[in-house]
Design a protein that fits this description.
The chain has 200 residues and is of the alpha/beta class. It has six helices and eight strands, in the order βαββααβαβαβαββ. Helix 1 packs antiparallel against helix 2 and helix 3 packs parallel to helix 4. The longest helix is centred in the first third of the chain and has 13 residues. This is Type VI collagen alpha 3 subunit N7 domain.
Length: 200
């Protein structure tokens, strides 16, 4: 197992559930997480997708080779917008386009595949089949949700219910990374515990 390697996709609710006023908190949350990861093409690769009624790729796992390039993109990140929220189609999109060799994934080299899903409301489409496909392909999914998100839904989508994090409001989001950073850096499907990767 490659202890210092991970492929991590952020799947962010970019709908009107979040809204332009709250999106900076989402951006700060991702930035804080990325800052504490050992990002690099041979270490941790990061991709990011926003979704509302449809998903859109911001960048893929192999788009950026350095943390500074990745952080520069995050600073420019704008809310996608849209009134719908279709988590099922977004999960299927990521499965088909990002956790693949063509999408920069190193799954064939047995590099752990992780997905962090952030939702600010319930999904409007069916998601169970797409979530099950993630589990079967060995993707470890964590869910972060506001109190308006459906907790039972998040628990179905997450790899297990202990990987669901609920925030009271968006203002608390940038301070949350201390919680998911542990499973993101130490957890591998199959329960293998590894050396943490977060930088001091």
């Amino acid at each position: 197992v490659h202890v210092n390697k991970r492929d991590i996709i952020f799947l962010l609710d970019g709908s009107d559930n979040v809204g332009k006023n709250n999106f900076p908190y989402v951006r700060d949350f991702v930035t804080n997480l990325v800052n504490s990861l050992d990002v690099g093409s041979d270490n941790i690769r990061v991709g990011l997708v926003q979704f509302s009624d449809t998903p859109v790729t911001e960048f893929s796992l192999d788009t950026y080779q350095t943390k500074s390039e990745l952080l520069a993109h995050l600073r420019r990140l704008q809310l996608k917008g849209g009134s719908g929220l279709n988590a099922g189609s977004a999960l299927s999109y990521i499965h088909a386009n990002h956790f693949t060799e063509a999408g920069g994934s190193r799954t064939r080299a047995h590099v752990p595949q992780l997905l962090l899903l952030l939702m600010a409301g319930p999904s409007e489409d069916a998601y169970l089949q797409a979530a099950d496909a993630m589990v079967r392909s060995g993707v470890l999914t964590l869910c972060v949700g506001t109190t308006r998100a459906d907790k039972a839904e998040s628990e179905h989508i997450a790899f297990n219910p202990s990987l669901v994090y609920v925030m009271d409001d968006f203002r608390s989001l940038p301070y949350l990374p201390q919680q998911p950073i542990q499973p993101l850096t130490t957890y591998v499907s199959g329960g293998v515990q590894e050396v943490p990767l977060s930088q001091p």
